[in-house]
């Protein structure tokens, strides 16, 4: 899910950029469905090794259909239903925030396909854009008001004992408090300032570049995006 | 139906509160019991000591084991916060799947790691009832 999760965040962010740079809703939806098909297919292939083959076989097939642009809205609705079935099967997200983001994107796309006028289509997709911006801003806000984050202690704890570092060697990063202090504040400032990127196309491109770097480093250290911590894992809301 | 709605709503109205605080972090440990003889506790899926950059890049694209490990962390947390047969079964089955077949019973425990001042402390918060390994492995197959 890791590469896929980065892609999901990327496509949601790219979609936001698209809306602000004059894509029509239909064009934005076309690109989103193509990228989402790749992300979900990659997740589904990983799942197929672990069982639940009926769910993930069907999911993979729908991804192929959606990527080929066949069937209009039906593959999107089908993937939405399967995501709902997955929530039931695992009693919550399997891949943490990545699954949540997939469900959010599919819900907005499904509503956009149901919309009878361009206005409501854009409203459905705009909701996704708003959530994308909130995903950074709220996440930055709840950190910056926390004294542990202000002191850089929280990020040290992530490396010291959380379930996320992908190898034991990475835990030694906890022994570099100054570096983690700077990294922590860089992340917080980026997340808090992200909404301002919508004010100018150049700023948005720069912000998306920073976001790509942020998620890439998360993937390197924790084999996840920030979305993995969204619900039920140790670094909790 | 209400349960399904309660699972669905947080996906479309998310809180986005990533990494607000660093809570105690669960580790799953298991042991095999043969007759009256319990074996030693072992950590389930210990992380590797070191990964090369190439391995890290490869794992971004293909890493079902790590994703399953994070799912088990979620199940471990759910088991403490809102105990359910689902979480218990998921942990039992997925731990059993990686073990060699045998006539033993499988038991797991949840050890929560946290920081108290400058010290890292571990606290066992849950011990499961031992269940036959063979039965779990049949389910997992």
Helical residue percent band of chain B: 40-55%
Strand coverage percent of chain B = 25-35%
Mean pLDDT of chain B: 92
Major sheet of chain B, described briefly? 6 strands, antiparallel
So what's the oligomer here? heterodimer
Low-confidence parts of chain B: none
Helix content of chain A: over 70%
Sum up the overall morphology of chain A in one term.
globular
Tally of individual domains of chain B: 1
**How many domains of chain A?**
1
How much strand of chain A?
under 5%
Number of strands of chain A: 0
Low-confidence stretches of chain A: 225-237
Number of helices of chain A: 10
Main beta-sheet annotation of chain A: none
The helix/strand order of chain A is HHHHHHHHHH
User: What order do the helices and strands of chain B follow?
Assistant: HEEEHHHEEEH
Q: Ends of chain B: how far apart?
A: 30 Å
Rg of chain B (CA only): 17 Å
Give the largest interface pair and sizes.
Answer: A-B, 64 and 52 residues
Search tags:
heterodimer; A: 237 residues; mainly alpha; 10 helices; globular; B: 141 residues; six-stranded antiparallel β-sheet; 5 helices
Report on this model:
The complex is a heterodimer of chains A (237) and B (141). Chain A has 237 residues and is mainly α. Chain A has one domain. Helices cover 73% and strands 0% of the residues of chain A. Chain A contains ten helices and no strands. The longest helix of chain A has 27 residues, at 118-144. The two termini of chain A are 21 Å apart. Chain B contains five helices and six strands; from the N terminus they run H-E-E-E-H-H-H-E-E-E-H. In chain B, a hairpin with a 2-residue loop joins strand 1 (25-34) and strand 2 (37-38). Chain B is of the alpha+beta class. Chain B has helices spanning 2-12, 53-61, 64-81, 85-97, 133-140, and strands at 25-34, 37-38, 42-43, 105-116, 119-127, 131-132. In chain B, strands 1, 2, 3, 4, 5 and 6 form a six-stranded antiparallel beta sheet that branches. The two termini of chain B are 30 Å apart. Chain B has one domain (25-140). The chains are: A mainly alpha (237), B alpha+beta (141). Chains A and B meet through helix 1, helix 2, helix 4, helix 5 and helix 6 of A and helix 1, strand 1, helix 2, helix 3 and helix 4 of B.
């Amino acid at each position: 899910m890791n590469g896929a999760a980065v892609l999901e965040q990327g496509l949601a962010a790219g979609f936001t950029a698209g809306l602000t740079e004059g894509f029509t809703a239909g064009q934005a939806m076309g690109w989103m469905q193509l990228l989402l098909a790749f992300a979900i297919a990659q997740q589904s292939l990983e799942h197929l090794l672990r069982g639940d083959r009926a769910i993930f076989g069907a999911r993979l097939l729908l991804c192929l259909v959606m990527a080929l642009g066949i069937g209009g809205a039906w593959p999107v609705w089908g993937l939405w239903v399967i995501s709902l079935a997955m929530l039931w099967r695992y009693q919550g997200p399997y891949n943490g925030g990545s699954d949540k983001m997939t469900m959010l994107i599919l819900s907005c796309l499904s509503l956009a396909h149901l919309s009878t006028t361009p206005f409501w289509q854009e409203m459905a997709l705009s909701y996704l854009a708003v959530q994308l911006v909130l995903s950074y801003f709220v996440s930055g806000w709840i950190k910056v008001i926390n004294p542990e984050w202000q002191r850089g202690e929280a990020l040290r704890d992530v490396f010291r004992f959380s379930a996320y570092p992908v190898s034991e060697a990475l835990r030694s990063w906890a022994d570099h408090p100054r570096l983690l202090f700077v990294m922590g504040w860089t992340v917080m400032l980026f997340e808090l300032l992200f909404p301002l990127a919508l004010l100018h196309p150049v700023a948005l491109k720069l912000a998306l570049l920073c976001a790509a770097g942020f998620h890439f480093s998360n993937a390197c250290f924790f084999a996840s995006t920030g979305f993995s911590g969204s619900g039920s894992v140790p670094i909790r809301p | 139906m209400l349960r399904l709605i309660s699972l669905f709503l947080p996906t479309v109205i998310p809180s986005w509160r990533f990494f607000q605080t660093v809570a105690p972090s669960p580790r799953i440990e298991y042991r095999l019991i043969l007759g009256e003889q319990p074996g030693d506790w072992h950590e389930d899926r210990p992380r590797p000591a070191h990964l090369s950059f190439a391995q890290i890049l490869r794992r971004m694209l293909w890493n079902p084991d790590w994703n399953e490990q994070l799912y088990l962390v979620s199940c471990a947390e759910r088991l403490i916060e809102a105990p359910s047969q689902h979480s218990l079964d998921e942990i039992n089955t997925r731990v059993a799947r990686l073990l060699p077949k045998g006539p033993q019973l499988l038991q797991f425990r949840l050890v929560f790691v946290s920081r108290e001042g400058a010290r890292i402390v571990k606290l066992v918060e849950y011990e499961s009832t031992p269940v036959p390994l063979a039965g779990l492995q049949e389910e997992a197959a």
